[in-house]
C-alpha cells in the first residue's frame, strides 16, 4: 500500500524558503506570483493492513512538526 503525506507550514507561520522561491521566480520574469508556500511530500510504502490511524500517529510523532506544520494523508 502506498501512502503520501503532504506536509506544509500552517497559515501565519513565516515561510522564508517560499519567499525566496517567489523572489527567484520574479527575477526570472514570472510576474504575477504573489506568494509561494513550500512543503514536502513523504511517500510511505506500507504493509497491507496498515491503518490510517497508524499513519496519522506516524505524522503526529515524527513526520510533521504539528506546532508549525499541518499534514494531509493520501492513500493510493
UniProtKB/TrEMBL annotation:
Catalytic activity: N(2)-formyl-N(1)-(5-phospho-beta-D-ribosyl)glycinamide + L-glutamine + ATP + H2O = 2-formamido-N(1)-(5-O-phospho-beta-D-ribosyl)acetamidine + L-glutamate + ADP + phosphate + H(+)
Compartments in which it is found: Cytoplasm
InterPro entries xrefs: PurS, PurS-like_sf
EC numbers, comma separated: 6.3.5.3
Pathway info: Purine metabolism; IMP biosynthesis via de novo pathway; 5-amino-1-(5-phospho-D-ribosyl)imidazole from N(2)-formyl-N(1)-(5-phospho-D-ribosyl)glycinamide: step 1/2
Main location: cytoplasm
SUPFAM superfamilies referenced in this protein's UniProt entry, alphabetically: PurS-like
Keyword Nucleotide-binding: yes
Superkingdom of the organism of origin: Bacteria
Top EC category: ligase
Family annotation (Pfam families): PurS
One Gene Ontology molecular-function label: phosphoribosylformylglycinamidine synthase activity
HAMAP family in the cross-refs: PurS
Sequence similarity: Belongs to the PurS family.
Described function: Part of the phosphoribosylformylglycinamidine synthase complex involved in the purines biosynthetic pathway. Catalyzes the ATP-dependent conversion of formylglycinamide ribonucleotide (FGAR) and glutamine to yield formylglycinamidine ribonucleotide (FGAM) and glutamate. The FGAM synthase complex is composed of three subunits. PurQ produces an ammonia molecule by converting glutamine to glutamate. PurL transfers the ammonia molecule to FGAR to form FGAM in an ATP-dependent manner.
Protein name: Phosphoribosylformylglycinamidine synthase subunit PurS
Organism encoding this protein: Loktanella gaetbuli
Top-level taxonomy: Bacteria, Pseudomonadati, Pseudomonadota, Alphaproteobacteria, Rhodobacterales
Gene: purS
